[in-house]
From TrEMBL:
Alphabetical list of NCBIfam families matching this protein: maleylpyruvate isomerase family mycothiol-dependent enzyme
UniProt protein name: Mycothiol-dependent maleylpyruvate isomerase metal-binding domain-containing protein
Organism from which the protein derives: Rhodococcus aetherivorans
Protein origin, superkingdom: Bacteria
Domain MDMPI C-terminal positions: 190-282
Domain Mycothiol-dependent maleylpyruvate isomerase metal-binding residues, every copy: 42-175
Amino acid sequence: MTHGKTHGNTTTGGTTGPDTDAAPEFPVEPIRALLLEQFGVIDELLADVHGDTWYTPTSLPGWTVKDITAHLIGTESMLAGIEAPHVEIDVHALGHVRNEIGAFNERWIESLRGTPGDEVLARYREIVARRREQLGAMTQKDFDEPAMTPVGQATYGRFMRIRVFDCWMHELDLRDALGVPGDEGGARAELAAAEIFGALAYVVGKRGKAPDGARITFELSGPLARTLHVEVDGRAAVVPALSGPATSTVAMDSRLFVRLAGGRTHAFDRLDEITLGGDTTVGRRIVDHLAFTI
């Protein structure tokens, strides 16, 4: 739930099928361990925030560093069974609130608006401690249980992978706002980025409107370097290899790619960092619509 946004049409589901010997689609490990690690990384970032720095604007409209922290508190509180607080303002009237998830987020942010940053950090640590205890007691069976998630009906395990994605994206938001770079690679990044890469066919076919017969190759450099192929044959699908030469190619650093996918920046502001080949009209339309959160 990034800034009150919901994912696009990504794949949902629980385990891989009725074969109980099959590996679970969303295994309790490493998802739990990486989520707990992500909580700790954010704590380390926030531990160095003091005074007016809490009010540093971020790339998310209307949100400061403190507001992102309040949002994280709110989501984990909801998962811990704590109801959203009542607030006096109509959060639906805020310009950046587009749906009920956004309204939920703003209730928590508004409820902590007058709370000093160090107290907000203490609240974050309290709810994380509670969630560590809850998650620590969970089994694979718990992760396989049906659950309503930001992408609709799925499983609790899927929700927790989305939590890794959401928290990781907010880590990047905090780093960008505070000027504290990170490596943006490794196990947490790979698990989080699985949500982005899982939405690529939707982004190319539905949002980018790649025509039937299009074959698109993405070349990502940087910490999440990889080559990704999408082919449109009736509908768009990520494929291990194209059936013919790419009709469009898109190359950029993965750090830019994840920010475009998360709606943190816009391609028209970063065109000098993107290389398009083949049918550049299709390629440009795709990069202009890479955001898979709405």
